[in-house]
Structures
1.
Amino acid sequence: MGDLLIVLAVLPFAAVVLSAVAPPAVGRACTVASGVVSLGCAIALVPSAAHGGLKVGFLRLDALAGVFVLAAAFVYAVTSVYAVGYLREDEGEEGFTRYARRFHAGLNLFAWSMMCACLVDGLALLWIGVEITTVVSALLVAIDATEDASEAAWKYVLLASVGLGIALLGTIVMYYAGSTVFGGAYDLSITKLLQAGGRLPHTPVRLAFVLAVVGFGTKAGLVPMHTWLPDAHAEAPTPVSAMLSGSLLAVSFYAVLRYFQVARAAVGPVFPQRVLLAFGVASLLLAALYVLDQHDVKRLLAYSSVEHMGILAVAVGFGAPLASAGALLHVLAHAAAKSNAFMGAGVLARTYRTKEISRIRGAMERLPVSAPLFLVAVFALAALPPFGIFRSEFQIVAGGLGSTRGGWAAVLVALVTLAFLGLATAATRMVVVPSGRPRLRSLGAAAIPVREPSWWMITPVLVGLAALVLLGVHPPADLTALLGRGAAELGGGGR
Amino acid sequence: MRPVPSIYAGTTNAIAVLVLLTEFAMLRTALLRSQVRLYAVQSLLVSALAVVVAAVRDVPELYALAALSLALKVVVVPWLVLRLLRDADAEIAGSGTLSVASEVLVALLVGGLGFFAVDQLHVSSRVLPTTALGLAVAVVGVSFVLMIVRSDVVSQAVGFFSLENGVSLASLVVAAGLPLILEVAFLFDLLVAVVVFGFLMRVHHSRTATLSTAALTRLRG
């Protein structure tokens, strides 16, 4: 199994090198192969992660890392397939070869950095991994070189870098806390810090935790550090938006969870849970309100990501094992649902040549396959049964009601319902409401031809929906074991 | 009576104070070129502090770190940014809504808050007086003010780089023993970030023909 871990850490990087130098067709094939094989490796590693974990050199896989690697690998696989269809539409344009090379190399590097960030052992290496995800994704946001894209990329790189500067300060303070127990020469290994537990000095650990939540939380899109997120998600090319939302936010939240584990072991559960609860509720509240009044379909989905990161923070803040297991299931389900929704929105935006919700009407008539798929994807995202997000949110709320923070569970239900309303209304309008009105015809909606995108862009959505049904109806036994083990690690049960 | 501080404590504290003063000078200056030069001076001071700590407290890894940070932060980064400035043909930093005097007052408040808050943490260091930690946090605070009040890409980037200097200063106080490989990785990461910042500054300049960020208001809501 150790070999699979190494494959996971090496293969996407090999794809980076190949796709940067080879012709676009080869780069495309490498990217798809690397995405699919990485997903295969991540799935094959689930049993090992669920039952004891693995360690090879500076790579370490425990249940928590297993969940996030699986999410990142899934999004990598589906977006690499989607990207084939996405880029095909631009083929033949001037400068395409250069663009495609950059795009494929960037996509592979982005996926590689996210998976490595989850697999490395140690808070310092984790910081380095997350920093690499930032620089790569900032370049990918700017890749279309439009004015909006460069504005979004600048805001993103500045805010995320400053956030990571704060996270670096947190890392250093955590090193100081550890050095009081282990002496100077240790490498911030997570295992060691968890072993030290209550022997770590409390004040520095608290400080490091708050700095990490603010720092990594900036990248995870927690309010009030979320301001870069809607811009970057809306302006990036669709496959990149799907990766940003489905896996990058989760990986940043993974970093927060690592600090949560250490803080919980050192100062007890109350303080770290309160901090997460505060940021989580703020994110949920603001995002639910923004979702209600959005004019741009990609920004709508971006604010929905802020909401889902809020749900994760609140779920872990409850401190109940059921809610923690629900949070980890939510990571997987959100990865599948959000990448699906972005891929669907990408098809709509390309067909109508706009992201304005009010100008996309009657999609069902023009896109008889992909428009209903988009609608189902948004409903899955908004937590309708039988999809995975319904199950995860149900677990989170049930766990919350059973904990000492039942009141916040009620707030969670109210805000999630509000966001549901916003998402469902906007998506239904775009897909179901016909475009026959004179005002819309004057906007050019009627002139849009009936043309489904290639199957390269539809198949990944179908795969995502299948995964969501599987997660919602009957998660495999190994996966359930993985989630249970991960929740135990978050609850202080795992070492 | 309080004990007289040692020469070592005096020297290191003096260097840390100078680091903070250069941060204020960056906030004060209107010329982009001077801002970058002040950043180079600040980086030089941080490197010098690393050498002093390495020599007196016998932490040989810090020599390597100081050399690397000297090469990177005193030479490479300022050179890259100055080259960009030459190409962009811009000189004056974009001023925000505050006057320089108000900016400095706000920065004094933020810096002071950082400096005195650290006192409450009771962090003790083997290698440096804790005063330096307070100063490091003040540098971070003032760099935030710099990024917020200035409205051009160069000032904002230099603000971020100097924030990193503040973090480096803090790491000298509380994490001087951090394994060298990690320190090198942090610096390498900074270099990558600088390249990306530089690239995006160029993209911004080529799109808008200015370094100002005042027009970056299309995306909202």
Note: Chain A touches chain B through 49 residues (CB under 8 Å).
2.
Amino acid sequence: MLRIKMLRSSLKSKQLELLLMTLIALCIAPLMSKSTYFLHVMIMIFFFAFANNAWNILSGYVGLVSFGHGAFLGLGAYTSTLLLLNFGVSPWIGMIAGVILTSIVAAALFLPLLKLSGHFFALSTIAVREIIRLVFEYTPYVGGAMGLTIPIIASSSLYYFQFSSKIPYYYIALTLLLVQILILYKMERSKVGYYFIAIRENEETAKALGVDVKRYKIIALVLSASFSAVIGTFYAQYFLYIHPNSTMGVLISVEMLLSAVIGGSGTLLGPVIGAFVLIPVETVCRVYLGGMWEGFHLVIYGILLISVSIFAPGGIYGKASGLLETLRSKWRKGK
Amino acid sequence: MEKLSSKEAITKIQAVVVSVIIAIAVIVAAYFAAFPPSQKPLVTEVKIGGIYPLTGAYAVLGRNDRYAIELAVDEINEAGGVKSLDGALLHIIFADSEGDPKRAADEAERLITVDGVCAIMGSILSGTTSTSAPVAERYKVPYVNEGSTSITLTEHGWEYFFRVTPHDGLYCKFTFDFLKWLAKDKGVPVKTVALLYENTLFGKTAGDVWKDLLTQPEYSEWELVADIPYDSKSLQYDTEVMELKKAQPDVVFMATYTEDSIMLQKTFHRLDFECKAFIGIDGGHITQYFVEGTGKLGDYVFAEARWSPDLKRSISQEANARFNERYGFNLDGHSARAYTAAYVLYWAIEKAGSTNPEDIKNALVNLEIAADEIIMPWDGVKFDSKGQNILGKGCIVQIINGEFRSVYPRETATFDPVFPQPSWEER
Amino acid sequence: MSWGMLFLQTITNGLLIGAVYALIALGLNVIYGVMDFINFAHGEFIMLSMYATYFMFVLLGWDPLLSLPISMLMLFGLGAISEIFLVKPILGERMVIQVFTTYGLLLFLRNIATFFWSSTWRTLPTSYSDVVLSLGEIRISLGYALSSLVALIFTIGLYMFFKKTDTGIAIRATSQDRETAKLMGVDVNKIYMLTFGLGSACAGVAGVLLTLVYPIQPEVGEIFCVLSFVICVVGGMGNFMGAILGGFLIGLTESLAGFLVAPAYKHIIVFIVFIITLLIRPKGLMGK
């Protein structure tokens, strides 16, 4: 009956107020700040929050850790860019096409892997991603190793998803992220969400309870890949250049999980909080220390990553709220 | 404490945590957006951004370029800075692209909007230039590129992009012209050629240009017997060399990175692959590490090096001597071009007499530098409407006893090339 | 050279490189088998060992094969220390945490190497590594031959250690059943430290041997990163013989694919072989 109770529980007005205030702050931030670099950092935060949320569906909720999400992001980016360059199709339509294509590829290539367990699945995703990357690298039609450059279309245009100012990108990224969080919120509270977690906690038990494990794994995979493809289109339109090594490589795949893990994987807001912490930290390290000594800023960044994982292995989200909880109970006792 | 489960609804406490963390992050970001990294502002200075891969797999290229630019800037500042700006000093702010296109765009954004640079130099790798140059284009800040040779970079219609170096199209053709001259000069016929290149942006471009050139009547006398792209992240290159052994070409053209160039040369020797000449373009073959790594085995390799320390030009020799004195090794094809690019930008600023990016851009458009003012063996510097320097030329060297000797073009060369190379046993 | 001889040469190359692959994967597998832990910074351990060997050669004039025990001990120490400070606190955690921590370690080690020793390439100029041995028409460099030989000797030594010594048996017992081993009086914490040290020592030996054939650079670990996982998984995670089998299988696949298809596709084929193996045997070739 616990479940029903949880289902019924919803946001109380005060919490809603707090979240709304944060939201309003984020909405008016571009109007308050004159710095476009600040906007750029915020866009990167939204970008990584979205990408990590996508990863989180398959790897956080269902527990199938993937190191291959760069492939999905890259497929999305390539689909919309190829459509734009060859047929002048709007990237927004390209985004939808990317979602469809990526879902199909994900289902076709990753489906056989779903029967693998734990570490085997995780490490085999590296191989699948690498195969996709190599195929793109050796196919001249998709730009090969040279990659694809999207030309700058002079004026800002919503149709071509190109703007000379940062502000439209900011709001697009923010909207995408909010819509995604809303979908994930609904998902988490639906039976799909419960089944996902049931599969993560114990696959055998879930099966015994009548959960169609395979089906829900596929749903998670397709959902996860689709979101990755969406943000892939955003990546292409924001940076205007994609190539297999950077858009489908190891680095982007790792970056798609770092924020989620640091924030708390398998939670709704973990990846978002992770991105809000990780991206500024990474940027500050690089900006302040990057030009100084060879490699120094990454030494510091590495130490920070290690410290976080040792002191807050469950993610910052869990750690911080745990800390506040104890503080509050102490305060109450003292009172 | 029970682990926070996603099954729970968001509690008040969690909402507070979320908001607080977001607020802190925003403040941190805003803080450093408002107060950029404090580079002690000089009285009058011209701020220039430099985006280079200072960490990651290409860090060594970034480091050497940075050294060369620092040398050039110090020389300029010691000579009285920018005279048309009352002796304002040049100040280069270096940023680390980590060799990642995302980061490069990020850093361009930061240098322009936070540090307020009036021009950007960068970024060696064509991949990082592809994302950072559009950023400069959007903010209308001139971007002086020293060494990204991918042909397409000047084909995008970027108005603020200026490439000082010739591109791969010219360099590749230059190696072919060299071989033609060589075969004729030495009276040794060349009938078959093979291409061996690493399959990412750099090597693939060279490979494609070479293949395209081979279809033209000018070079139809040569038959392409092997076309071998390879992955430069390998522990062994035996299969690539076996492929060459099967094809038996007279000459092998190569585009490599450093570690693979060393491994390939050793494998040529081990598997006893003989041919008349190895001709490398840029990449591994023009670095000191290739010479150190292969020792005697690296001798007689030709390389399109862009530059050579022994050029018959006093200005080049002097610049190299200053560089060597300061850092303990010679300028190479990359760093020499970075040094030149720094000067090109300086001359443009001098001519513009302004730190306004638009003025500097206009100065760059109309810039004309004579051949004897630059250390590169070029005919000078003059940009066409696409921003490409049209007076650039190549420079072929041969490795003899572990030293780079310039062999072509003959006007600046100091050494008569050895062709065909001796077999492994004769060495 | 006839096609047949080229083919034989290819097989030889595959076997030689396979021995080194096996050693690299062995370190990972020993750790995984006992501790259920994946070290993403394994390649960086190899890199550190390469630098140690290089500096002992350049500064002290010690030949790599002579300084091998020292590099091995250094890496054993490094592994043991990492186990105490990094691995122990997160041992029971989910896999993503392991990834996260060791990715941090990877960044740290790579860049500390860049920081201290700069990003230049270094090559260890031994007098013998480029000497070529001819067996009929088949040609092998002494560097490769020696590294494969030492890799094999070390592997056999390690195997004997696990089979014959008390500590080795304790480690195996722990890997099979942690709780029972504990009841039998095995100090599991000590075993973990030892195991991680041993796994790192494997990386140490691999590093020393690689200096004979490969240039040294802070980013060199990247080459081993993906490949060593592929080998581990193909052979069977945590299985001693699996790593060796996987090493030779991948070494041979790479060489044969390059020879029979095209060098450009050798890595694609390696990955396809990897996936097919997994689909047929989801726990790897030797997995149970």
Note: Chain A touches chain C through 49 residues (CB under 8 Å).
